[in-house]
Structures are given as structure tokens and as C-alpha cells.
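Annex B. Sample input.
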Amino acid sequence: MKEHLILVVAGDPSGDLHAANLIRALKRREPGARVAAVGGPLCREAADEFLEDLASRGVTGFLEPALKLPFLVRLRARLKAFIAARRPDALVCVDYYGFNRRVLALAKSAGVPAFYFVSPQVWASRPGRVKVLKRLVRRMLVIFPFEEALYRDAGVPATFVGHPLLDLLPAPQDKTAPENPPAVGLLPGSRASELHRHLPIFYAAFERLRAARPGAQGLVFAAVAQPDRAYGRLPEGARLVRERDYARRRELDVALCSSGTATLENALLGVPMVVVYKLSWPTYAIARALVRVRHIAMANILAGTTVVPELIQRDARPERVALEAARFLDDPAAWSSARDQLLAVRRGLGSAGAYARAAQAISADLSAQAPR
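Annex B, continued. Sample output.
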């Protein structure tokens, strides 16, 4: 069997995680394959060649990437040269549509088949992206059941592989009510801009919760790409946590959580939460005009109802965050109802094995290709 060269590109911390695990699954399936990656520290560990740390730079939003434009232009040129010189057998893009769209175009021009693992949320905003993906992608490897039909109806080959978090998360803890004193998770996000906007809110909200519940523990979950100093001075009763196995996360009684992957992780662990998100006002104005869904938290989107509160922009104030968290902590019935609905979301996402199924789909396609 030919030893394949595969280029993998991920652009944010969650993409780095999923890309690294996909790389390992690809190499288990094809031990002779060689993988070159753009990603973050986890991709650096998993890949044979690491080309650039894009995930740690926090390039996101609508206006913010303009500040990193020289870096992105240089990286695109580097990848264009890599594709031309090395002729990879496949490109695998992981989420991060804004930059990956450019990489997909490079691969298309060079005749390199492209796969997309973890679809951009075209069902939430900018549906025109589906037309771009139809032109540039050989196959979408999607992680939500409804995405497969969405793409196939648009003429884009798509395979539902399951949600990769089910490969990573332990079983939910067996508990029927929040503890007293409670364990409160603080998950402010992974990017420097998110820490800047969310940490003051989360710390002040936790102080309010602890004042009414002496002994409450605050667990500040640190992102892989962020140093300890990025979290500043922690509130009394709080400590910084770095983990990959979710052992402490599954024990939480409630979480204060930035919108993003962490909200779905909490949902699949059955942890009631308050979802918070603040953007720069220009970025928020653009997002509000484009987004077509009622909710920002994936748990609420998948449930089809407001299971957990969402506090956005001016609503994201410490007193509101603490009040919503207290409703879960002080009302076991509300806490239990939210937990049950979150665990129903978990059951709706299928079974573990997403990385292996994605690797199998890519490998099967490469094996079917005629030699160049």
C-alpha cells in the first residue's frame, strides 16, 4: 500500500484537539502514513511534521483577523509552496472556515483531494458557504446527525461520523442533586480576548456565589495554549485546573461557561451551566445580523429549547451570572431537570468512535484513488 502524505490544518484550540486525535487515528489505520500539520500544541505532539502554530494565536471573529493578516498571508503562501512541492495525497481541514477556505482553494488548484472534519456551522449563519464547500471539498465528515442530510440535499458528499467528544469524555457522574458546598467551574474560553472579557465577570460572579455559600470551590479550567499568568489573581476559594481527562469537570455542580466547545462538553457530562459571551461591539453587530439560530449554546440548539441560560453582551454581568447559577444550586428540581435534558442531548449524538470512522472514510477514499 502506498505510504500517504496527509496535510491537516486546524486553527483554534478545539480544532487542535480534534485534529490531533484524528492524526493518531489516521496513523493507526495507516502506520506508514506521514502527517504534516498546522494547528497547536496537541498537533505538534501528534504530527510527523509541524508547520505552524495557528491555534494558539487566537485569530477569530469578523474584524479581529485583520490584525493578524500579515501572518495569515505568510502562512497561506507557505502552505501553497508546501502543496506544490510535496504534493500531499490529501488535505484534511478541521473547522476554522475563514482560513481553511483559502487552503481548500489551494488544494483544489493543485488537484489535491480535500476532506473537512467538523463542519463550519453553515446552518447557523452564512448558508452560502455550502456552495463554496461543494466546489472545493471531496467529502464532509460531519459530527451532528442533521448535518449529513443538510449537505447531501445541497449536493455535497457527506458522512456522519459521530461526535468526537464522545471519544474523549468519561461517563457522567452518578448524582441526583448539587453538593453543598458546591464545586463551581469557571470556563472563560481559550483565546486571550475571551479571557480579557470574561474573567472579570466570572471571578466577580464566583465571589457572589461563595459569599452566600461559604466553602464553595471555584475551579478555573485553563486552556492548553494559555500560561498560568493569563488567569491573573484568582478569587479566594478558587484554583487553576489543567486536565485532559475531564475528571474534575464531571464532578462540577454548576459551570460558568464561555460559549463554545466547552458548553457541549458540559452538556455531555450533565453539568448545568450559565453560558456567557461578550464580543467587541462591531463584531457583535455583524454576528447578530448574520446568525439565524435562536441560541448560541450547542446544548440549547440540539435540545431545541432553552435548557441553560445564555447571557450575551450587556446581559453578561456578574450579578446576572451569579443569579442564574444560584437558581440551579438552590433548586434541586431545576438542577435535575436541566441535567436530564443535557444527558438526553448526549444520547442523541450516537456512540464513540468518531475519529476512527473519520480516518476510515479518508483512508478508503485514498485507497480508491488512481495512482498519479
